[in-house]
Amino acid sequence: MLSNAGIEYAVEARQLTKRYGDLVAVNCIDFGIVPGEIFGFLGPNGAGKTTTVKMIYAAVPITAGTLTVFGWDVPSCPRKIKSILGVCPQEINLDPDFSVYKNLVVYSRYFGIDSSRARSRAEELIDFFQLGEKRDQKIENLSGGLKKRLLIVRALVNDPKLLILDEPTTGLDPQARHQIWDKIRELRRSGTTVILTTHYMEEASALCDRLVIMDEGRIIERGAPAELISRYIGRDVIEIEDFDDGVEEHFAAAGLKYERYSDKLYIYAECGRESLPSVTKIADTGNIILRQATLEDVFLKLTGRQLRE
Fold it and tell me: In what helix (H) or strand (E) does residue 240 lie, and over which residues does it extend?
């Protein structure tokens, strides 16, 4: 449950619900996003995170519950809310007939920005995202990474108070991904509130101040990434392969937290180096790896390891 305790949220949802006929895509969720933070929505495919985000920017109507953005009720004030939002969608929907610069100038006019300000704002953003060499290039000549960067740039033309990034780095190489991360951090430092959906757990850990994990339309956990890792996993994970049947009983008797999936065992430990000798003795195998726990371990523990359609 959400307790506001006097906090004025940038985005606040109470019992937020979205149904499509008999399908409950979002099921009575509560959350509050603090101004100036990066807030993440994580979840398997079909968990309801993108539907939730679309309700925030009034692209999908609410079925039940309440949802406000900077104090404005979303169903009642969609135009006001859209005027202070920037949205970077999953799909690349840039205008292929225009150059990088022209895409930004034309898009600015949707927000009623006069032509002089639109031109200067386009130049500011091209410089901020280091797109100067591509300023006059047509969209079809840009790489996937540059198109993704331009989508974020376009979402900033109206200097939004709230920036929504729906899987902004999907399909990008590590260099392009880290460039975008750096720019997102800069935006937060300037006071912009950011909502992020992502399937990259490393990205969520690197960027999010707080996040929620969704599954089957519900929020199943919430908190800061480090807090969730500590709560569910500990500091370290010991991975074991090629173990004998019955070895799990010995781990349980030794008081070790563990999880089995397919042909692997995962031992969760606060100090893996201290646990490693006893684990090695019990497992009696050379296929043992000690590594630091991650948000991905939490995600898989809470949502399962089975593939989702």
Answer: strand 236-241
HSE-CB at 206 with a 13 A cutoff on CA atoms is 15
CATH code given to domain 234-292: 3.30.70.260
- Please state at what angle helix 225-232 crosses helix 295-303, rounded to 10 degrees: 60
Across-strand partners of 236?
A: 269, 292
Per domain, the residue ranges of the chain are 1-84+163-171+187-229, 92-159, 234-292
Give tens-digit pLDDT for 242-300: 777 778 888 888 878 888 887 888 989 888 888 888 888 888 776 899 999 999 999 99
Going by C-alpha positions, the residue among 257, 242, 254 that lies closest to residue 282 is 254
CATH architecture of 92-159: Orthogonal Bundle (1.10)
3-state class (DSSP) for residue 110: helix
pTM: 0.90
Residue pLDDT, tens place only, 18-66: 999 999 999 999 999 999 999 999 999 999 999 999 999 999 999 999 9
In the chain, count of helices (H) and strands (E)? 11, 14
Q: Output the CA–CA distances (angstroms, integers) from residue 113 to 83, 87, 120, 258, in the order listed.
A: 11, 17, 11, 57
Tell me which fold the domain 1-84+163-171+187-229 belongs to: Rossmann fold (3.40.50)
